[in-house]
Amino acid sequence: MKMPTKWKRLTALATMVLTTALLSGCSNMMVLDPKGPIGAQQRDLILISSILCAVILVPVLIMTFVIAWRYRDKPGNKSKYTPKWEHSTKLETIWWGIPIVIIGILAVITVRYTYATEPSKPLESANETMVIQVTSLDWKWLFQYPEQDIATVNYLQFPANVPIRFELTSDAPMNSFWIPQLGGQMYTMSGMAMKLHLQADEPGSFFGSGANFTGREFGKMNFEAKATTQEEFDAWVKQIKSESPALTLEGYSKLAEQGVTHEQSFSSFPEGLFNKIVNKYASSHQHGAKTEASTDKQEKSEKDAEAADSTADGQEGHDANHAGH
Amino acid sequence: METTFLGRKRKRLEAAHADIGGHSAGGSHDEHHDHESLKTFGFWIFLITDCILFGTLFATYIVLRGNTNGGPTAEELFQMPGVIASTFILLTSSFTSGLAVLSMNRGNVKGLIGWLAVTALLGASFITLEITEFVHMVQAENATIGTSAFLSAFYTLVGTHGLHVSLGLVWMVALMIQLARHGITAVTKRKVNVISLYWHFLDVVWIFVFTIVYMMGVM
Amino acid sequence: MFEKIKEFASEFFVTGDPLIYGADVGIALTLISIVVVLTYFKRWGWLWREWLTSVDHKKIGIMYIIASLLMLFRGGVDALLMRTQLAMPDMQFLEPEHYNQIFTTHGVIMILFMAMPLMFGLFNIVIPLQIGARDVAYPFLNSLSFWLFFWGAMLFNMSFVIGGSPNAGWLAYPPLSELSHSPGVGQDFYIWGIQISGIGSLMTGINFIVTILKMRAPGMKLMKMPMFTWSTLSSCITIIFAFPILTVTLALLFLDRYLGAHFFTLDGGGNPMMYINLIWMWGHPEVYIVVLPAFGIFSEIVSTFSRKKLFGYKSMVFALMSISFFSFFTWAHHFFTMGSGANVNAFFAITTMIIAIPTGVKVFNWLFTMFRGRISYKSPMLWTMGFIPCFVVGGMTGVLLSVAPADFQFHNSYFLIAHFHQVLIGGVAFGYFAGLYYWWPKMFGFKLNEKLGKWAFWLWNIGFYVCFMPQYFLGLDGMTRRVSSYGWDMGWGPLNLVSTIGGFLMGIGFLFQVWQIAHSIKFMERDTTGDPWNGRTLEWSIPSPAPVYNFATLPQATEQDAWWEEKQRREQGQKPAAQPPLEPIHMPRNSGIPFIKSFCWFVAGFGFVFDWLWIAIPGLAGVAICMLIRSFTYNTDYYIPVDEIKRTEAALRGSV
C-alpha cells in the first residue's frame, strides 16, 4: 500500500514544519512575548484556549489516521465491516457532549477575560494614568500628550510601569492601533474617541502598527513605541519642549493631507485639537464611547489646569453629546 | 435495466404520481395546475427575500434618522395630509385588487380586468402623490438625497417602495393585455394571484413606512 | 481632437504596468483564437443553440464549472503575484497600489466568482438527479441566474483592462471605498459586478429551495433525502436570508458614490460603521453558504467510499440546520476591536463558539462512517481525507479567534489570514474538488485520471501546509494583513519565503489538474455503467451523461440510499418489476432571453460605472423589454414523444 507511507510522510512533514517553526520562533514572537499586563493576560488566554482546543484536536487527528488506516479496503483486511451500522445514541451523545462541555468551559473563561481586559477599563496601578491621544491620518500617526502639551508623529514614548490611556480617533478611514507586545489592538474611528488602556512593565522599544487597511501607503504606518524610565521620559519631554517647533492648525491640516512622513515632534499643539478632530465627524455617530470620552475630558480639564483642554473644548464636547443623542 | 426497479412498487408509484406533479405527463390539466402552484410557492419565497430587503432599509433608516446634519428634520418636512391621502389610496387599491381576484374566481374576465384597471389607477395616483411630495421637498425645502444621512435613508426607503409599486403597475398593465388575449387560464390565473399577493405585500410594507417614517417622524 | 482621444484612452484603459500589458496581450490572443476556432469550425450556431440558450440544468452546471475554473485561475495568479511580492523583505515587484488591487480582486474573485459558481455548478448537476427530478423548479430562471453571474463576473474582471481595478479590500469598507477616498471607477466595477451576479445568486437560492421542497421523487421524504441535498437546502435558505442584505448594502454604497447620498460617508451624518455591520451580516453567513454544501459532498463521498451507510443521519441534518441558523448571529466577531463593549463582545464570542459544536459533531460522524467500513482511496476520498485534518485544525484556530479578548491580538494579522484560508481551502476548495472528481463521470461519462490526480492532490495538500502554517506564526509575530512589503529588521523574511514556496506548490497542483483534465478527455475510457463508484443515490441509477430528460420514468425512492438498496435487492436475486409504460415527457424550451437580458444588465452596469447614462438607460430598457417579452411568451415548453425516449434510452443503455 502506498497510501500509509504517504500519510506518514505528510504527518512527518507537518510535524517538522510545526516544530521548527515553534522552536525557532515561538519564544520571541511578539504576541507570545508580552511586556505588559494586558498583553500577558491575552497571551495566557491564547495558551489556555489552545490547550482546551488541543484536548479535542489531538484525539480527533489520531482517530482520523487510525481509522483511515485500519479500515482501508485491502484484500485480507480482517477488521470489522458493518455496512448497515448507522446510529448509536450513546456515541452520538458523547460527541455532542464533549464539544458542548469544552465550549462551555471556554465560554466561561472568555467571558471572564472579556470583562477583565475590556480596553476601556482603567488599569490598577499605584501610578496615575497618563493620557495619550492618538489620531490616525493618511498615512501616519499623530500622538498628542495633553498633560505634557507635546505631540509626536509616528513615534511614541512613555514611562514604563505607568498605565497609559490611549484615546483613539481618526481623521481618515478607520485604522487600528496595535502594539502587539503591550496588548491587543483597537480601531481608530472618525467621530469617536475610543479608549484603550495599556502599560509596559519594563523599559524597551516595541513595534507598533496600523493594523487596518486604509489605502495606498498604509503599510508605512509602523511606529516605534518606546517605554523608558520616568526620568528619561521627563528629559525627553523637556528636550522636545525646547527644541521642536510648535504644531499649528495649519500645520495640522498639512499633516492630515495624504502622504507619508518621517518621525516628527512638536513642542505644543493647538488647544483642544483632539476634540476638534473628534467633533468634526461627531454628528455622524451615536456611539456611546465618544460621549464618555468627551465627558472624561471635561473632568480632566477641570481637574488639571495644565491639560490642553480649555472650557471651550469642554463645551464642544458637551455639544457633541447632544448631537449624539 | 436500471430504471426497472422503479416499477417495483408500481401501485404506490402511480398513486404518488398524482401529487408530485409537474413532470409526469399525466393529465395535462393537473400538470398545469402543479406547474402554476410551484410558481406561486416560489413567489412566496421571493417575498421573504423582499421582506429582508425592506427590513435592511428600515434598519438603516432607524439608525440614521437622527443624523440630519443641520438640515431639515422629519418634523419640518413631512406634510401629513398628503401622506394620509396616499395611504388611503394604497389601502383601497389593495382592496380592489382583492375584488379583481374575486371576479376571476367567478370567471368574470371583464370584472377582473376592470378591477385591475381600478387598482392600477389607484396605484398610479399613489405614485403621482409620492413624486409630488419628493419634488416639493427638493424644490421648496431644498432637501435632497445629499443633504443629510437622514434624507438619504428617507428617499431610499420610500423610493424603493415607490419603485416596487411602479414595477407592479407596468406588470399589471402587461397582465391586463394578456388577460384580454388569453382569458382566464391556469397561467393567467396564477399571474393574477401572484400580482395580487405582491400588491398586498407592498401595502403591508407601506403601513410600516407610514408608521415608522411618517408617524414617528412627526411625533 | 486626436489629443483628446489619446487622453481619454489613457484614462479609459489601464496603462503603465508591463504585467498588465502582458496580460492584455494574453486576453486579446485568447479572445481572437476563440472567435477564429468557432468561425472556422462553424460552431457559432451550435454554441448558441446548445449552450448559451440552454435551460438544461446539466449544461448550465457545466458552464458554471468552466467559468469558476477560469476564475480560479485568475484568483490563483493574483495569489501568486502577492506571494511573490511578499517572498522577501523590501521586494520591489509590485507597487503598493497594484498590490492593493490584487488582494482586493483575489478576495472577491475567490469567494464570489470562484467558490459560489463552483457550488452552483454542483447544485445544478447533482440536485435534480439526486432527488429524481427532470430539471430544477424554474429552468428559465436558472439560466438567467447563470448569465447574470457570468456577465457580473465579466464586468468585474473588465476593470483589469478598462478603468482600473478596485483596491479597497474585498469587502470595501467605507470611507475608503467612498468617492472621497476612491475616486476611480474601480470601486464602481466592484459594486456593479457583485450586484449583478448577486441577484443571480439570490434567484438560484430560491430556485433550489423550491426544487428540493417540491420536486423530489415519489416516496422521498425530507428525512430520506441524500445529505448533499440537505446541505444544499440549508445553504440556499442561508442565501435567501443573507443576499438581500448584500444587495441593499451595495446599493446604498452606490447611492453614496453616484448621487452623493450620505449613508456611509464621513460627512453629512453618514455612518461607516453601519456598512461594516451590514456587510458582515451578509459576509459571515456567506462563508457558511459556501462551506455547507462542501459538508454535504463529504458526507456523500465518505459513505460511498467506505461502502457504509452515513453515520448519524439525523445529527447531520440537525447540525447543518443549526449552523445555518447560528451563522446569522455571529457577524460582530469580525470587529471585536471596534469597542462595542464587553457585553456585545461576550455575546458574539459565545454564538461563534456554539457553531463549533455542530461542526465538530459532523466530523465525528464522518469518522464513524469510516469506522468499520471498507475505505477505498480514490480521488474523491483522497480529497476528503485531506479535508478532515485540515478543517479540524482550521476550525480550532477559528475557535481561538472567537475568544474575544484574544482576538484583539489576532485581528487583522496573518493569524486570521491563515485561519480563513485553512477553512476555505481545506474546507471549501478541497470539498468542491472532491465533488468535482466524484461527479465528473456523471457529467461527462468518463473518470479523471487517478495518477495525475494523486500528484495534484499531494501538491495541493503539502503546498497548503507549507503556505499557511508559517502564516499563523507570522501573525503571532505581529505581521498584519494587506501590507505590501516589510523591512529586513522585522525578521519575517524566512517564514514568508517558506509560505511563498507553498503557494507555488499549490499553483503547480492546479496545473496538474488542468493536465489531468486534458489528458483524461483524450485517453480515459468511457464509463458505460453510469455508476462507476458503486454509488448509493439516485443520480447513479441513470446513464452518464444523463439524457436531457434525466429519468425516462420517474424513480421511486422510499429509502435513504435508494439506489444502493435496490442494488442490494438485486444481488439477493429479487427481480426488478416491469417498467411502467413510458409517457411523453414535458420539458422547458430553450430561450435566448436570459443571455440577452443579462447582457443588457452588463451594459447598464457598465454605463453606471462610467456615469454614461446614454449607455446605462438603453441597457435598462433592454432589461425591461426582455422581461415583457418573457411575460408575453406562453409557448415555453414542449413534450418529448415516447418514440424519441425509447430511441434515446436504447442508444444509451444499449452499451450497458
Helix proportion of chain B: over 70%
From the alpha-carbon coordinates, what is the Rg of chain C to the nearest angstrom? 25 Å
Number of helices of chain C: 20
> Could you name the CATH topology of the largest domain in chain C?
Cytochrome C Oxidase, Chain A
Write the layout of secondary structure elements.
The complex is a heterotrimer of chains A (325), B (219) and C (656).
Chain A: H1 3-25, H2 37-70, H3 89-116, E1 130-137, E2 140-145, E3 150-153, E4 155-159, E5 164-170, E6 175-179, E7 183-188, E8 194-198, E9 204-210, E10 223-228, H4 230-243, H5 249-256, E11 264-266, H6 273-282, H7 288-303, H8 311-324
Parallel strand pairs in A: 1-5, 4-10
Antiparallel strand pairs in A: 1-2, 2-3, 3-11, 5-8, 6-7, 6-9, 9-10
Chain B: H1 10-20, H2 28-64, H3 74-77, H4 80-105, H5 109-140, H6 149-182, H7 186-218
Helix pairs in contact in B: 2-6, 2-7, 4-5, 4-7, 5-6, 6-7
Chain C: H1 2-12, H2 18-40, H3 44-52, H4 57-86, H5 96-130, H6 139-158, H7 186-214, H8 227-259, H9 272-305, H10 313-326, H11 342-370, H12 379-402, H13 404-410, H14 414-444, H15 450-476, H16 493-523, H17 562-571, E1 585-588, H18 593-609, H19 613-632, E2 637-640, H20 642-654
Antiparallel strand pairs in C: 1-2
Helix pairs in contact in C: 4-5, 4-6, 4-16, 5-6, 5-7, 5-9, 5-14, 6-7, 6-18, 7-8, 7-18, 8-9, 8-10, 9-11, 9-14, 10-11, 11-12, 12-14, 12-15, 14-15, 15-16, 18-19
Descriptive key words:
heterotrimer; B: 219 residues; mainly alpha; Four Helix Bundle (Hemerythrin (Met), subunit A); 7 helices; elongated; disordered N terminus; C: 656 residues; Cytochrome C Oxidase, Chain A; 2 domains; two-stranded antiparallel sheet; 20 helices; 68% helix; 1% strand; globular
